[in-house]
Specification:
This protein has 5 helices and no strands. It is mainly alpha-helical. Helix 1 packs antiparallel against helix 2 and helix 2 runs antiparallel to helix 3.
Length: 87
């Protein structure tokens, strides 16, 4: 696993500690955990995200990301790997 993914997970977790109401951060934290092979943590993070945004889909997340295609693909793949729906 790339060290950059683990660094990202660290910073997303820290952001949530400092701003617990920023539940939307879980869209990236879930993907980071999933891509790091930490599926249980990814699923817990996804549950937190879906609890706050029950109708949220991967397609909606992709549409709202101003990042590169490869970043959107990574986030999408991570979210899908732990059961988030695409549409």
């Amino acid at each position: 696993m790339k060290p950059t993914v683990m660094r990202a997970v660290h910073w997303y977790r820290r952001a949530l500690v400092e701003q617990p109401k920023a539940v939307w951060i879980n869209r990236f934290l879930t993907a980071g955990f999933a891509l790091a092979g930490r599926k249980d943590e990814a699923k817990r993070s996804l549950c937190t995200l879906i609890s706050a945004f029950p109708s949220l889909t991967i397609s909606q997340i992709r549409t709202g990301l101003p990042h590169s295609v490869s970043f959107r693909d990574s986030v999408s793949n991570g979210l899908e790997s732990v059961g988030m729906r695409i549409c």
